[in-house]
Amino acid sequence: MRCGEAAAAAGGGFLLLPRGVLLLLGVCSALSLEIKASSKVQAFIGEQVSLKCSFKSSSPITESLTVDWTYRPLAGGQMETIFHYQSVPYPATVGKFKDRISWVGNVAKGDASIAIRSPVMSDNGTFICSVKNPPDVYHNIPQTMLIVTERGLSFQLTSAVLLSILVFLPSVIVVVLLLVRMGRKFGVLKEKKKAGCKKSSIEMSDEPEHTETDNCLGKLRNWCLNCVDTDEEDPY
């Protein structure tokens, strides 16, 4: 039931319960500060992570505005304040978050976010962002669950990289197969060409061997042929 509806419902008993109605109206006017935060945040070991927190207040932002972040371990236990802001940030000076929390918010824009440097798995737990901007001091209490894990290969491959691999990998495989096939075909043609140009042993034996005695043997052969021709021409 909203504030206005609750007040209207109690209006009939205003004469009987004036203090109750005034208290209800007072509480409704104070609950004019709304806080929003992520219910779950994924982080990786050693990589800075931001815990987002935004707020809306019906009152002007003043120096009295305060922001508090509290933490409860995943295993349970008491809540501990790890960050405080009032005009300037006051990070934790003791505890497991010492020197690891930085202010990344802007109260003028309704931003009360912080960042955790070098998170580890033992940081897993519940974080609560609380904002007070007097007279707005009552608000909802959103909780943020931080989960720190190791970053694996599957997390390093972004969706764009995976899409590129799925698109270009088949094309690369096809091109490589075509190049291999063309290379084999070229090799076969080259071998055939070499085999066609090679002379047979008979052809090689028919070719005269060129040595230094070619001229002398040629002259001797011609002289013998002339002698034979002369004998045949002599009459008996």
Care to give the gist of this entry?
The protein is of the alpha+beta class and 236 residues long.
Structure explained in plain terms:
The chain is of the alpha+beta class. It contains 6 helices and 11 strands. The chain has helices at residues 3-11, 18-30, 153-156, 159-197, 201-206, 214-233; strands at residues 33-37, 40-44, 49-51, 53-57, 66-73, 80-86, 88-91, 101-103, 114-116, 125-132, 143-149. The termini are far apart.
Shape: rod-shaped
Counted by DSSP, the helix tally is 6
Helix % is 25-40%
Arrangement of strands in the largest sheet: 2-11-10-5-6-7
Secondary structure blueprint with pairings:
Elements: H1 3-11, H2 18-30, E1 33-37, E2 40-44, E3 49-51, E4 53-57, E5 66-73, E6 80-86, E7 88-91, E8 101-103, E9 114-116, E10 125-132, E11 143-149, H3 153-156, H4 159-197, H5 201-206, H6 214-233
Parallel strand pairs: 2-11
Antiparallel strand pairs: 1-4, 3-9, 5-6, 5-10, 6-7, 8-9, 10-11
What characteristics describe this protein?
236 residues, alpha+beta, six-stranded mixed beta sheet, three-stranded antiparallel beta sheet, 6 helices, 11 strands, 39% helix, disordered N terminus
